[in-house]
Design goal:
Blueprint lengths: L6 H6 L5 H6 L3 H9 L9 H14 L6 H10 L7 H11 L4 H11 L8 H7 L3 H17 L5 E5 L23 H10 L11 E8 L5 H10 L7 E6 L7 H18 L4 E7 L4 H11 L4 E7 L6 H10 L1 E4 L2 H10 L5 H15 L4
Parallel strand pairs: 1-2, 1-4, 2-3, 4-5, 5-6
Helix pairs in contact: 4-6, 5-7, 6-9, 10-16, 12-13, 15-16
Length: 351
């Protein structure tokens, strides 16, 4: 078991050695032990404040971008407060340029609900959130990127769940994993940063994030690259309008957190995703490079014409989707053919 150094031991670490000490420690348990439980924690307000100030301000210069992300993630063990918010803000503003982007992406690939979106929109005070978002925006202006961020629905987009009778419920669509990997990696000649995949869903987070974690568990083991999950609330489940509203909120937050990137959205025709995609294209024509809608419910006539005029691209299988994104220059021929082979291996036919 990794050690859990005390606050005194952290303070006593020689200059330049704090990173190594934290790397050898169980950082989550260290923060939890110093902050105390529901009873002892009532008497440890000073210790919590000193811990945040030590790691996020006084000795932050000793920490690498990856370790700074680990510290911010570990601070989830502390209840939200102005002290914690100020510490996180200080940590996020402590870097610029490529090191800042490395920290930002590391924080967004934690593997649980405490990712960058959670930190910025749920852990910070309004004033600290505004300051952090302004810092992110300035960094994007100084170093624009061509990284592609993939926003992807889950039900009837990754797995047959609600409206698609062609496959058993819960079946992962042939070729979808290979396509998401290809999009995440980018073209071979200009590989983009891995970890750009975010699943957006109207599924509620649930108490203590249990439903969102259930969603994450359902994606585990599929061979997906590092990814985040942005969920909804129970109120978002009742109408297509509320589903659309939540997914667009997720999109707006992603744009604010990653303004240097381009975006694409993959959804399905079973609920409100085509409307979501059309609104994304309207709100961010310079940001959104493609919207692909998996046609599990037929879309025809004037409605289809309107969606296609707005820039929506429909497909019925993931080899078809691979052809579309290949024509758009988002994946190379090798990646496209890998999707073809995956579809053919499971179905024996390609559309």
């Amino acid at each position: 078991m990794k050690p859990t150094p005390s606050l005194a031991e952290l303070r006593a670490a020689p200059e330049g050695s704090l990173e190594a000490l934290l790397a050898l420690s169980d950082l989550d348990r260290t923060v939890a032990a110093i902050s105390g439980n529901r009873i002892t924690g009532l008497l440890r307000g000073d210790e919590r404040r000193e811990l945040v100030q030590l790691l996020c301000e006084e000795r932050v210069a000793e920490l690498s971008p990856a370790m700074r992300a680990r510290v911010v993630h570990a601070l989830r063990r502390l209840a939200p407060s102005p002290v914690v918010s100020a510490g996180i803000r200080s940590m996020l503003e402590s870097l610029t340029g490529a090191p800042f982007r490395d920290m930002k992406y590391s924080l967004n690939a934690t593997g649980d609900r405490h990712d960058l979106e959670h930190v910025v929109y749920e852990r910070l005070t309004e004033a600290d959130r505004a300051a952090v978002l302004a810092h992110i925006a300035r960094e994007a202006e100084d170093a624009p990127s061509h990284d592609l961020r993939i926003l992807c629905d889950i039900d009837d987009t990754v797995k047959a769940m609600l409206h698609d009778s062609r496959y058993p419920r819960g079946r992962v669509y042939p070729g979808v994993i290979e396509l998401l990997i290809a999009l995440d990696q980018g073209r071979a000649a200009e590989p983009s940063r891995p970890g750009d995949l975010t699943f957006v869903t109207a599924r509620p987070e649930g108490p203590r994030g249990l439903i969102e974690q259930y969603t994450r568990n359902g994606l585990a083991g599929l061979g997906l690259p590092p990814h985040a999950v942005l969920g909804g609330s129970f109120l978002n489940l009742f109408t297509k309008a509320s589903i659309k509203e939540r997914k667009l909120q997720n999109f707006d937050r992603e744009r604010a957190l990653f303004p240097e990137c381009r975006f694409m959205f993959l959804g399905d025709s079973g609920q409100a995703d085509a409307h979501v995609g059309a609104e994304m294209l309207r709100r961010g024509p310079d940001f959104v490079v493609a919207v692909l809608i998996h046609e599990v419910v037929p879309v025809a006539g004037a409605a289809r014409d309107a969606f296609e005029a707005a820039g929506i691209r429909f497909h019925t299988s993931y080899d078809d989707a691979a052809r579309i994104v290949h024509r758009l220059g988002l994946i190379d021929t090798v990646a496209r053919d890998r999707v073809f082979k995956a579809v053919d291996a499971e179905t024996g036919t390609m559309t």
